[in-house]
Design goal:
The structure holds two protein chains of two kinds. Chain A has a domain at about 65-280 and about 290-295: MetI-like fold (Orthogonal Bundle), CATH 1.10.3720.10. Chain A is about 75% helix and about 0% strand. Chain A has 24 helices and two strands. In chain A, strands 1-2 form a two-stranded antiparallel ribbon. In chain A, helix 3 packs antiparallel against helix 4 (about 95-100), helix 3 (about 55-85) crosses helix 11 and helix 7 runs antiparallel to helix 10 (about 220-225). By secondary structure, chain B is α/β, with parallel strands linked by helices. Chain B has helices at about 1-25, 50-65, 75-90, 105-110, 180-190, 195-205, 215-225, 235-240, 270-285, 285-295, 325-330, 330-340, and strands spanning about 40-45, 70-75, 95-100, 115, 135-150, 170-175, 210, 230-235, 245-250, 255-265, 320. In chain B, strands 1, 2, 3, 4, 5, 6, 7, 8, 9, 10 and 11 form an eleven-stranded mixed sheet that branches. In chain B, helix 2 links the parallel strand 1 (about 40-45) and strand 2. In chain B, helix 2 runs antiparallel to helix 10, helix 6 (about 195-205) packs parallel to helix 12 (about 330-340) and helix 9 (about 270-285) crosses helix 10. Chain B is globular. Classes of the chains: A mainly alpha, B alpha/beta. Chains A and B meet through helix 16, helix 19 and helix 23 of A and helix 1, helix 2, strand 2, helix 3 and helix 7 of B.
Chain lengths: ~550, ~350
């Protein structure tokens, strides 16, 4: 039992709770409240409008179709690759393990942008096809649902890959061995023992992909807008940014709640599968898993795996780099057309781009720092105290990350559009609303790592300090924080990188002078400045790679790719 | 040990600062508003002028008026309007000036009492068609909807009717009036024109006409050969031709859709002096020369030479556009368009 003296300790913890109310509870409450407001009174009118408007229903259908299809593709691809790497004698598995998660390094909307350069109506591959075949029609146009599915699939298979890889490595090999000893052939063992054992893990990974896809904004925005193909996230974005109807924000709020519900359903299912104990069981590391000898198949399977790396990572990067280097969009990437002019224009002449880079780095550093500190307190309450409502606290700090970013952003708009009473300060249209949204959004990362570290700290250490006369805050500062420092440090980077590449929330909350790098790339692309957006996207990828290298260096290789 | 402690304290101090800064009220706009003296301080322009041109105007203006910081929010006309409406709901429109594609939006703004009445110093230098008769808005640039085509397109289109030529089937682009104010003006103009009407758009759709999100995108799509022909803003083509882009345009035989693209000062501006300075500058002779140079626009006044290869104001054959009707029938136009082309 902890006894908190009514002093430093309670003050600090109360402050943490109040901050959480300000960051998460109030905005989400506003979202729910506004969704029921029509002409300044309670009403279901917004929901009625939201679900009876044909284009909204269509968007919901599109969201489900795309997310499910991409989920299936990513699952098959990811699970198969995980099996190849974990359970076969494929050459170069170690390198493949790293190479296959590289799509995580590139934000999906940048991936979409890059694929546009390859398979857009005048993408390099389509142009090549048209030149060779003499046809005036492209081979395949990536705009629209099929392209969205492809890009989502290629960006999300690593989720399944990593989940299943972990599951396979942790799986107790005795069951497989037993089957083998009983005379089953290796492929039969895989089919009848390994696969059924792995199914909950695969399902959990698949559902994670589904949740990510349904919340994705960048890919359907880049590949859907021009075909007038909308999903829920882009439909809400349109309602917020393009509709001048007086009630558009309230209708968008109702649509956000619907989107949140679909996503929550996926999360509940995922939790259900995760509760399967196979996933949690970690056996000793000394076991030798079964290895399938591929024989002659190993070469073409290696070729397939390399092709996947080539297609998912190398090809889009090369394509977007070429577009960034071409003098005027539409010209072939021949030596005489190549120039650094686009990079010069974007970095030297485009103030918004320069600001975007500075803002994104500043926001990422600030959000990561605030979260590291705040999550130490919140995790402490959750793990180390018996305070009432700490389960609720856990839930609240997780909510903004489990909800789609679009929902969080709209909640922030509705909460902070009007000036805060008493101090009469408006957060909307300032950089602070972005910072608040980022902190809320990624708080879960910090709390999770801090809670993990705290669970390892035995209460006796802190109690010793208290017995020796230290106040709570002093014990927290001198005993607890130093012990969980590695966890806080890791949490810092877990927040830093996604903040740097954020688009979904920023696209709704940015304002003049408060652009982020993702927003500027997106706006340039949306307004048809393909060359400039490609150049800035390349710069963004470089910044992300540098941040990743930095992360690896500073965490001793524990984080980053 | 002490070092680590002080580092920790520093981090804590930074956090506290952030929290305080997040809560602190903005400093009240300083300086006496009474003195009309020198234009200075910060102004924000909401505009649909394409980003690269807006960037150039920004640096050029700030170089000429070093005391003024010009912030620009750039997006499509519908986004600019939606943003202003959202801010109005929140209680404060951030924009000091608004400069979108066409006059009908300003009729809406006028009806909502959002604009500041102002007579620029050189208002008299503008022809009547370039200004609001009530004195709320003035054209800062002239844009025209014309017919653009890829240089490889055969035959080359000459008129609006030519766009329906089956030779272009499936390779025709039209910017969406749901996003672009200029496109909305063009759609309404053609829909009200005898011999055209909505039949023209149905035929366009039947000939494989596709709607495109915005003009800049369509420009790239024509230059890259994705579309053979398209309806596009004249200056956008002049802008990329010197770079070697494979795009050309023609003034349609029937006439172009002639769009004075107005600037207005928002009524709630906190810096009317600087806002007026911007409006004055853009319609001044040097301002229009800058617009010609930076944006390849046809000047809104007769005493400025048009960009190379472009006609002067009086030489442009134009179709009649009733901007009041565009405002009045906005929803009907968008609904009808959606019925033909989809959302």
């Amino acid at each position: 039992m902890k006894r908190l003296r009514i002093n430093s300790g309670q003050v600090a913890l109360t402050l943490a709770v109040l901050l959480l109310i300000f960051l998460v509870v109030y905005p989400l409450a506003q979202l729910v409240f506004q969704s029921f407001q029509f002409n300044q009174s309670w009403s279901l009118q917004n929901y009625y409008t939201a679900i009876t408007t044909e284009s909204n229903l269509l968007a919901l259908r599109h969201s489900l179709e795309i997310s499910l299809t991409a989920m299936l593709g990513a699952t098959v691809l990811g699970a198969f690759l995980a099996w190849l790497v974990a359970r076969t004698d494929l050459p170069g598995r170690g390198a493949l393990r790293t190479a296959l998660v590289l799509p995580f390094l590139i934000p999906p909307f940048i991936g979409a942008l890059a694929w546009l350069q390859i398979l857009g109506p005048v993408g390099y591959l389509n142009k090549l096809y048209m030149a060779l075949s003499g046809s005036s029609e492209p081979f395949w146009n990536i705009y629209g649902p099929d392209g969205i599915i492809l890009v989502m699939m290629l960006h999300e298979y690593p989720t399944v890959f990593i989940t299943v890889l972990g599951g396979l490595e942790r799986m107790n090999p005795e069951l497989e061995e037993a089957a083998q000893i009983s005379g089953a052939r290796i492929f039969r063992v895989m089919r009848d023992v390994t696969l059924p054992l792995m199914l909950p893990t695969i399902a959990a990974g698949a559902l994670l992909v589904f949740i990510t896809n349904i919340a994705n904004f960048g890919v359907p925005a880049v590949l859907g807008f021009s075909e007038n193909y909308y999903v829920l996230t882009t439909q809400i974005y349109n309602a917020v940014t393009k509709s001048a109807q007086p009630n558009s924000l309230n209708i968008a709020a109702a649509m956000s709640i619907l989107l949140g519900l679909v996503s929550a359903l996926g999360i509940l299912l995922q939790r259900f599968y995760l509760s399967g104990k196979e996933f949690a069981v970690i056996s000793g590391k000394s076991m030798q898993p079964n290895v399938v000898r591929l024989g002659v198949h190993r070469y073409w399977l290696l070729a397939v795996a390399l092709a996947i790396v080539l297609v998912t990572t190398v090809a889009p990067l090369v394509a977007i780099l070429l577009t960034a280097l071409v003098r005027a969009y539409g010209l072939p990437p021949l030596p005489e057309n190549l120039t650094f002019q686009n990079f010069y224009d974007v970095l030297m002449l485009n103030e918004a781009a320069r600001r975007g880079i500075v803002n994104s780095i500043g926001l990422a550093v600030a959000a990561a720092t605030i979260i590291s500190i705040l999550s130490a307190f919140i995790a402490y309450i959750i793990v180390k105290t018996k305070m009432r409502g700490r389960a609720l606290l856990d839930f609240i700090s997780n909510a903004p990350y489990t909800l789609p970013g679009t929902v969080v952003a709209l909640a922030m708009i509705l909460a902070w559009l009007k000036p805060i009473p008493l101090i009469d300060f408006r957060l909307y249209n300032t950089i602070w609303i972005l910072l608040i949204a980022y902190v809320a959004r990624y708080l879960a990362f910090g709390v999770r790592t801090a809670a993990g570290s705290l669970a390892q700290v035995h209460a006796s250490l802190e109690e010793a300090a208290r017995v020796s006369g230290a106040g709570w805050l002093q014990a927290f500062r001198d005993i607890v924080v130093p012990l969980i420092r590695p966890g806080l440090f890791a949490g810092w980077f877990l927040v830093f990188i996604p903040s740097l590449r954020e688009l979904t929330i920023s696209a709704l909350l940015w304002s003049t002078r408060n652009e982020t790098i993702g927003v500027v790339v997106f706006n340039l692309q949306q307004s048809g400045n393909t060359s400039a957006s490609a150049a800035l996207a390349v710069i963004m990828i470089i910044v992300l790679l540098l941040a990743n290298v930095l992360t690896r260096r500073l965490t001793g290789g524990k984080l980053g790719y | 040990m002490n070092k680590i402690k002080s580092a920790r304290l520093l981090v804590l101090a930074v956090l506290v600062l952030f929290v305080l800064a997040a809560c602190a009220p903005t400093p009240a706009p300083s300086g006496p508003a009474a003195a009309p003296a020198e234009a200075k301080g910060k102004i924000t322009l909401y505009t649909s002028v394409p980003q690269p041109i807006a960037d150039k105007i920004q640096s050029d203006f700030q170089a000429k008026f070093p005391g003024i910081t010009l912030d620009i929010f750039r997006s499509g006309t519908s986004e600019v309007v939606a943003k202003m409406m959202t801010e109005k709901t929140g209680g404060e429109i951030i924009a000091d000036l608004v400069w979108v594609a066409e006059p009908s939006t300003y009729e809406d703004f006028k009806a909502q009492d959002l604009l500041l009445k102002y007579t620029p110093t050189e208002a008299s230098a503008l022809p009547d068609e370039m200004k609001d008769k009530d004195g709320y808005y003035y054209a800062g640039r002239l844009i025209n909807m014309v017919i653009a085509y890829n240089t490889a397109t055969e035959p080359q289109p000459k008129s609006w009717k030519d766009v329906l030529n089956p030779a272009y089937k499936g390779k025709i682009g039209f910017p969406s009036p749901l996003n672009s104010g200029a496109a909305e003006g063009a759609v309404k103009t053609l829909a009200d024109l005898s011999g055209f009407g909505w039949k023209y758009f149905e035929d366009l759709k039947a000939n494989g006409g596709k709607q495109v999100q915005n003009n800049s995108t369509l420009r790239d799509q024509i230059a890259s050969g994705e579309f053979k022909v398209g309806v596009l803003l004249d200056y956008m083509i002049r802008e990329v031709k010197p770079k070697g882009a494979k795009i050309e345009y023609v003034w349609p035989e029937e006439g172009a859709v002639f769009i004075p693209s107005p600037i207005a000062i928002v009524k709630t501006t906190k810096n009317p002096v600087a806002a007026k300075a911007f409006l004055d500058f853009i319609i001044s002779k040097p301002g229009q020369e800058t617009m010609v140079k930076l944006g390849y626009f046809i000047p809104v006044r007769a005493d400025v030479t048009p960009p190379e290869g472009a006609p002067s104001l009086d030489k442009i054959k134009r179709l009649p556009t009733d901007w009041k009707a565009v405002t009045r029938d906005r929803q009907a136009t968008k609904d009808k368009w959606t019925a033909v082309f989809g959302q």
